[in-house]
User: Fold this.
Amino acid sequence: MPRYAQSADDLLSSDDVLSMSGLEFMQGILEGRHPAPPIGETLGYTLHEISDGRAVFRGAPEFKTTNPMGTVHGGWYGTLLDSAMACAVMTKVPRGSVYTTLEYKINILRSIPLGMMIDCIGDVNHAGRSTGVATGEIRGVDDGKLYATGSTTCIIMKIR
Assistant:
């Protein structure tokens, strides 16, 4: 079970983050040495797997993630895809650098039933000195069906 940050004081300092590679940082979250971001607790997903150029989040939408029609809000798909794709890029960020999402696009292919466990997978296509590009997909854990896809461009910034 991840340890979610409950306040800004729970998060690592900038110096701590800059002292490790992005992959080391993400491995620390997966292993529970670093706090997971509170958005995961809010939206019901957690980091499930991390490796060089790849991030997988697992979760299930709940009623609190629905729109007025009672289906999963598009923002839930977007947030998960942004997390997986950007964290995949993060695994390529060297010590002394940070990243942020510049833009992302999603395509919702079918509705995810409430309570259904999904994997949201992000894979890096390119990571250079200043940009990272990744793609993502949301798949059902049990049925393997593709529910949404996405793509992102992130900026990588050397701080030290």
